[in-house]
Amino acid sequence: MMMQLRHGQQTIPCRRGAPSFTAAGAAAARPVLVLGAAARSRPRKPQPASVCLGQGVSGKSPASASPARAVTDTALGASAAAAVQVGGKLLLQNFAGADNTQLRLSIQLVSATVAGSDGRGVKADAAVLDAVVGSGEAELDVSLAWDETLGAPGAVVVKNHSDFPVYLKLLSVPAGFGADKAAVHFACNGWVYPVDKHPYRLFFTNDACVKEETPSALLKYREDELSLLRGDGESADRAFQPWDRVYDYALYNDLGNPDLRKDLARPVMGGSQEYPYPRRLKTGRPAAKTDPRTETRAPLDEDIYVPCDERVGYGSVPAPTLPPRGGHFGSLADVYKLYGLDDLGRLPDAKAIINSNAPFPIAPRVISVNPTNWRKDEEFARQMIAGANPVCIKRVTKFPLASELDRSVYGDQDSKINRDHVERNMCGMTVQQAMDEGRLYVVDHHDWVMPYLKRINELPGEEEKAEISQRKVYAARTLLFLNHDDSTLKPLAIELSSPHPENEKLGAVSAVYTPPDTEDITAGSFSAWEVAKAHAAANDTVENNFVTHWLNTHAFMEPIVIAANRQMSVLHPIHRLLKPHFRKTLHINAVARQIVVGSGDLRKNGSIFRGIHEFTYFPSKYNMEMSSKAYKAWNFTELALPNDLIKRGVARGDTKKPEELELLIKDYPYAVDGLEMWAAIKKWVTDYCAIYYADDGAVARDSELQAWWREVRDVGHGDLSGAPWWLAMDTLADLVEACTTVVWLGSAYHAAISFGQYDYQGFVPNGPSLTTSPVPDAGKEVTESEFLGSITPVTEALGFMSISSGPMALASSGEVYLGQRPDTEQWTSEQSAAAALAEFRGRLKQVAENIERRNADPELKNRTGPVEAPYTLFKPTAQPGPVIRGIPNSITV
């Protein structure tokens, strides 16, 4: 239905329920914003004109502002016509850390409908705002100049004449413009540095439109912003500064530190067939002196460059200080003490939830209720469908298991598990019957680990003996059987393989371990089978961190974020859809390269700091190389959950109807909850995209969207650009599938495979990150001390727990969860989009209720397992309490 809006003497058509920017140059007012429940404004105390109230953590006295006054800014081409004053509210954040700071801004509204001689929208007179602000958040009353002959504003220009940067969140003009006086919101969410750093910042309204529908008066501004973000015209070797806003690409050539020590050099990841990898953000740091291919590393106490708007209220993360390398835990009681538990794994105060006096006050969930049942075979198997890494289990369709490694290089690597090993525990079934009925499964890390085993087991090198522990690692395969009556799994056999000691070409040397006839988890000793389980778990811990976690989320998402900022304006509807799922990702990845995944740096005291991952995970210096090898087989489309489940053989059906997929493991918590979450995300994305794209042609004609996807494929993931599986992005279905997968990987998937790390691997006997001793012969037993002496040592365990416990701090980080937008964001002026988001929140609530219901069902044994820890990693919203759950919108830890 067409509506008529009057502006001056001209009648202009405007569509409601579609982008409010109509044909180029149309002087159309915006529809009234309808907010969903999660986007209501925060209550604020009434305040007099020109006075703001500090809202930050400082709780300081109200800031004051002198009345803004209009001045003519001829340098910006401001209109000389008579102006009226319109009132507004400016919400900002001052991170200067000082109270009573003098702030001076000039603010100019920009016409969306009337262009000057240069084709850009005419600017109104500048209003100058003088205010005294404290640290934290503040809301200021502003009085802005506007000439009604300029129609409706579509942007605002802000200059900072202070001596410190300020973060602008939102500028709202409640009185509005046009015939219906609709409110206007400028969703700033950006830093404004002093004018010697930022000559000006331009922020658009919260309307959304593709480039082809942008009013002509705003089109050049839109292009100007993208050109600035791409760094067009910048020197290729310029070092970026904290106030820069440039998004560009680089190889992973900053992992090593050859200038510090030769053995700390690392291969360049990306740009080669040997080490393909996604691209990272360019920083502009100079090349190393000893290796021009390697970029110098930023000092530990300095921030790595990210565009300034990507760093909001958080800066450098200090490298953790760990005690000197010592030995292993002597007893399980020593491990329990880390969490403030007694010798039996219980809290001294039976009514307490945490022990605040402990180094790690919150015990991992795997021991938080029942501290001994982690040893059970049923729990070991359950964690492969409901633990930290529930995405590697596959249905067995061929037996014996075969390797895909090149026989000319590695010899015979096929599995040595035979029918005699397993059929005695298969309830009278044969292997063939179990395969036919979908009851035989495997978690197989063999081919990924084996090519690096010889080098790993030769660690540490001569120069690093004081820095990392001796390794003794095997390549593991774990075969499992599905019990039909209750959908539980039981392990049948574990195969541990090593390279032939004389020559790798002679094939693998393998040992097969099977469960003992009786299971006794109360014994003070540990069987060889239990040691084999620990080695298999270590393989799983490492693949979880470097493939299913780092590669599939952190590394994958970085070029998605870079390309979106370079090629899609903030006005673009898809940029607006995906923006919440980019929050903090570039920053956390930069921190990771600095102190987590890199080789090492020099502390101020002269000691060497080894990257936490090289110190704590068994591949050490080969961590990132191994993730690069996994990237060779990486496939974006297979990361969509329905496709992944079908590929692994654990589900069958139509991937386009996830709610109808048949799971072969009926009680598969990750898959059951995940499919509900996937369906909810896809419905939200589908509804949103339908608002802005009427048909496939609209997708194909969207130049910014096409440029984004082309750059993701050809540059960001350029080493795989020729892969046949890339979506063509010429249909609405392709757009929905791509955006759904991006949202899924950045939110729900990341939570499921990252936030379980502390819960299951934070108790190192259950999920060790490295192994240091050979497995005893089958049938032998070892003492508790010997068992602990074969897995992660004390200092490495502390390092691992220090990073895997990150989600515990989300409560104090201002985290934004799936389906939420900050109250102050005013993210859209489109009623249909706001309504679709509200519906999405309703579906997420239903998902949470369904998870609670399933967790309470005693028939679903895999929901809690022997350790009595409910599966909650897909619960979307954080719940009150000391342990924070929920799905953040983005990769923030």
UniProtKB/TrEMBL annotation:
Pfam families: Lipoxygenase. GO terms for biological process: fatty acid biosynthetic process; oxylipin biosynthetic process. Keywords: Dioxygenase, Fatty acid biosynthesis, Fatty acid metabolism, Lipid biosynthesis, Lipid metabolism, Metal-binding, Oxidoreductase, Oxylipin biosynthesis. It comes from the Eukaryota. Residues 39-66, 275-296 are annotated as: Disordered. It is an enzyme of class 1 (oxidoreductase). InterPro entries: LipOase (IPR000907), LipOase_C (IPR013819), LipOase_C_sf (IPR036226), LipOase_CS (IPR020834), LipOase_plant (IPR001246), PLAT/LH2_dom (IPR001024), PLAT/LH2_dom_sf (IPR036392). Pathway: Lipid metabolism; oxylipin biosynthesis. Residues 78-206 form the PLAT domain. Its EC number is 1.13.11.-. GO terms for molecular function: dioxygenase activity; metal ion binding. PROSITE patterns: LIPOXYGENASE_2, LIPOXYGENASE_3, PLAT. Residues 208-893 form the Lipoxygenase domain. Belongs to the lipoxygenase family. Plant lipoxygenase may be involved in a number of diverse aspects of plant physiology including growth and development, pest resistance, and senescence or responses to wounding. PANTHER family: LIPOXYGENASE. This is Lipoxygenase.
